[in-house]
Amino acid sequence: MLNIVLFGPPGAGKGTQSQKLIARYNLVHLSTGDLLRSQISQGTELGLRAKKLMDEGLLVPDEVVIGMIESQLASNTTAAGFIFDGFPRTVPQARSLDALTQRYDTGVSCMVALEVDEEELVKRLLERGKTSGRPDDQNEEKIRKRVTVYNTETAQVAGYYAEQQKFHSLNGIGAIEDIFGQICQIIDQHQPATSAAASPAAATDEVKA
Ligand SMILES: Nc1ncnc2c1ncn2[C@@H]1O[C@H](COP(=O)(O)OP(=O)(O)O)[C@@H](O)[C@H]1O
Ligand SMILES: [Mg+2]
């Protein structure tokens, strides 16, 4: 299995790259932000609690997002692997993700972090806010608050994966296709030989060879 953690501040391009990666590697995309927004639109109790925090640019409690990931993993047991987007955001979440993925497989394959400076993030998110309908994208102050929360609470998750030699970072400013190519190069170094057939491109290469 290929379990990829896609990391980076809000607006770094995680969602954009995830869409391309799920097609290339046949993975299931698990975005805790999307899962929470779906709870909000369904008007569940969890959604109501989460909305208050998300609107303020704050993190939702660890046990809530860990529980959502746990149930998603349990309901996708035949998947070739997962892209975790927006999760883990704290070290306790990272520890839980190890434990959860190890139930099914060998754990997290690697983390890829997209680096983008704050001014570019603000610019992108204000632009996304024009069409996303996301309340947390609507004003600059909230956006900067989320970047600060990322820098203070989330950035240390990178250290957790660096200790395990699973951390990679790249410049998230540039053409979407170029960034995608660089992410694929990193993933291919971590891809177990036995699951290479899960990738359509790799399968084609094998046939040619
Ligand atoms: N490489 C890029 N260059 C310019 N804009 C980008 C790039 N990648 C993503 N974007 C845009 O930036 C915004 C945030 O991207 P998104 O994928 O939603 O980020 P995240 O999921 O990390 O918050 C979107 O409006 C997206 O279209
Ligand atoms: Mg996103």
Automatic annotation (TrEMBL):
Subcellular location per the Swiss-Prot or TrEMBL entry: Cytoplasm
EC number(s) per UniProt? 2.7.4.3
Pathway entry: Purine metabolism; AMP biosynthesis via salvage pathway; AMP from ADP: step 1/1
Q: Where are the transmembrane segments?
A: none
User: At which positions is AMP bound?
Assistant: 32, 37, 58-60, 86-89, 93, 134, 146
Q: Name one Pfam family in it.
A: ADK
Look at the named UniProt entry and state the broad enzyme category this protein falls under: transferase
The reply on keyword Repeat is no
Q: Which reaction does it catalyse?
A: AMP + ATP = 2 ADP
KW Phosphoprotein (keyword) present: no
Q: Where does ATP bind?
A: 11-16, 128, 174
Q: Where is this region: NMP?
A: 31-60
* Listed GO biological process terms: AMP salvage
Q: What cellular component GO annotations does this protein have?
A: cytoplasm
Annotated PROSITE patterns? ADENYLATE_KINASE (PS00113)
Q: Which GO terms describe its molecular function?
A: AMP kinase activity; ATP binding
- Give the matching InterPro entries: Adenylat/UMP-CMP_kin (IPR000850), Adenylat_kinase_CS (IPR033690), P-loop_NTPase (IPR027417)
Q: What does this protein do?
A: Catalyzes the reversible transfer of the terminal phosphate group between ATP and AMP. Plays an important role in cellular energy homeostasis and in adenine nucleotide metabolism.
Q: Which family does it belong to?
A: Belongs to the adenylate kinase family.
Q: How does it assemble?
A: Monomer.
Entry remark concerning the domains of this protein: Consists of three domains, a large central CORE domain and two small peripheral domains, NMPbind and LID, which undergo movements during catalysis. The LID domain closes over the site of phosphoryl transfer upon ATP binding. Assembling and dissambling the active center during each catalytic cycle provides an effective means to prevent ATP hydrolysis.
- In Swiss-Prot or TrEMBL terms, this protein is called Adenylate kinase
Source organism (scientific name) = Hymenobacter persicinus
